[in-house]
Design a protein that fits this description.
Shape: globular
Structural class: alpha+beta
Number of strands: 10
Strand content: 15-25%
Strand order of the largest sheet: 1-4-5-8-9-10
Length: about 250
């Protein structure tokens, strides 16, 4: 009698079921890794593009090493953005949300960690600064400081990890005085309106002093992630949340 070695229909179905379960478990992780890899590449390219543009501007102005020429504290953010945009090939400037074709570049950005308002509801960044749209799809928001010579002795509230003012024993807000040596801030979203639209993932903050462009030292705008990536660690630090959630403390 001839015998046939093979699989029964039940065995095939069981095998396919196991493969399906394994795929369902591993696919989200693979998709996340691919997305992270693409974002990391975009982050490094956008940072390089900004650094090169700043250097070219300094050279043109005959002021290498001095960012206050490009980010002149006597000018508005729009005026300085008009100068800066010229140093990116094919870039477009949106002076405001109302400019033709610009509304789509003004959207909510979640913070890198959960930030709340006074009522304990989560908030997002909805800034309306002038924006430079690069041909790579990255969006740069330009925040200009108008402190003379890019310097101000500044007093601000001290905040907790959720962005709430910390109180003194007498109920007043705790404050700190510090030297603000920033000429401007550049908030970047490396893939523009595309998701995830969150600091620490595809959006980050850069600070501009007279001498250099550096990672903005504020955890809410993704400083931990950006420092990791620029140092080669390639690790994102963020907390996913939704706008308007109520946080119980």
């Amino acid at each position: 009698m001839r015998s046939f070695n093979g699989f029964t229909l039940a065995e095939v179905l069981i095998t396919l079921g196991i493969i399906g379960v394994v795929a369902a478990m591993t696919m989200p992780s693979l998709i996340q890794k691919n997305q992270d890899k693409e974002l990391i590449s975009r982050i490094k390219k956008t940072y390089s593009d900004i650094s090169n543009a700043v250097l070219r501007a300094q050279t043109d102005f005959g002021a290498v090493g001095n960012n206050s020429i490009l980010f002149n504290p006597s000018n508005t953010a729009v005026e300085n953005s008009e100068k800066f945009v010229k140093y990116f090939n094919g870039a477009k400037l949106c002076k405001s949300k109302t400019d033709k074709g610009c509304a789509k570049y003004y959207y909510d950005l979640k913070y890198a960690t959960t930030k709340v308002d006074g009522s304990g509801q989560t908030v997002v960044d909805t800034s309306n600064y002038p924006k430079i749209i690069l041909n790579s799809g990255a969006v740069l928001a330009i925040v200009q400081y108008n402190n003379p010579d890019c310097y101000k002795l500044q007093t601000d509230n001290v905040y907790d990890e959720y962005g709430r003012p910390i109180k003194n024993p007498d109920g007043t807000n705790k404050t700190i005085t510090w030297k603000n040596t920033r000429c401007a801030i550049i908030r970047i979203d490396v893939n523009g309106p595309k998701q995830p639209n969150q600091y620490g993932r595809d959006a980050f903050g850069l600070a501009v002093s007279k001498e250099k462009v550096f990672v903005e030292n504020w955890s809410f705008v993704g400083s931990d992630s950006l420092k990791n990536i620029l140092s080669g660690k390639d690790e994102f630090v963020y907390t996913n949340y939704s706008k308007g959630q109520t946080i119980d403390f």
